[in-house]
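Page 37, continued from 36.
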């Protein structure tokens, strides 16, 4: 059953992410993005990483997408339609997407997926987790959270820019 759910979630992620970047209507793109993020949270739940799934749902699916949708609806740009990409922009974008796909697939194929459960000898400790959470060195989580905060800021600025864009 887990394999079937994985394939369903993977199909939803693939279809909705393609719809996100190819849809010319901004509200449809935001809705497809929301379904992509929710399906990604479903993958986290399937992997039994409940904290990450909850963060995915609250911050990304709940926060960013709602911010984008409200900025679109409040500024009356619901019917805004993006222009078709010019071939001189579409070809380099397609090449970059293909290169990124090749890099991701080769990285996954080269990674040694051995179980690390045998390495863990101590029981999980909240204090140990808190120290690792606030550590900026090796194994720390402060730097990834700072990078994510910059990503969220960029998403908010992009949502405001799209919402404030005047029709010419």
């Amino acid at each position: 059953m887990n394999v079937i759910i994985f394939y369903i979630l993977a199909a939803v992620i693939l279809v909705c992410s393609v719809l996100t970047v190819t849809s010319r209507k901004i509200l449809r793109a935001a809705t497809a993005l929301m379904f992509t993020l929710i399906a990604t949270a479903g993958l986290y739940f399937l992997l039994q990483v409940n904290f990450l799934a909850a963060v995915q749902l609250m911050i990304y699916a709940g926060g960013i997408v709602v911010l984008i949708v409200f900025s679109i609806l409040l500024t009356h740009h619901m019917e805004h339609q993006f222009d078709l990409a010019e071939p001189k922009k579409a070809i380099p974008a397609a090449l970059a997407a293909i290169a990124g796909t090749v890099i991701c697939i080769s990285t996954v194929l080269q990674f040694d997926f051995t179980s690390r459960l045998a390495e863990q000898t101590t029981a999980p400790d909240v204090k140990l987790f808190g120290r690792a959470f606030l550590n900026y060195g090796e194994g720390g989580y402060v730097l990834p959270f700072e990078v994510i905060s910059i990503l969220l800021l960029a998403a908010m600025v992009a949502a405001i820019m799209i919402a404030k864009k005047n029709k010419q």
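The chain is about 75% helix and 0% strand. Flag for discussion at group meeting. The domain at 2-82+114-164 is CATH 1.20.120.1200 (Four Helix Bundle (Hemerythrin (Met), subunit A)).
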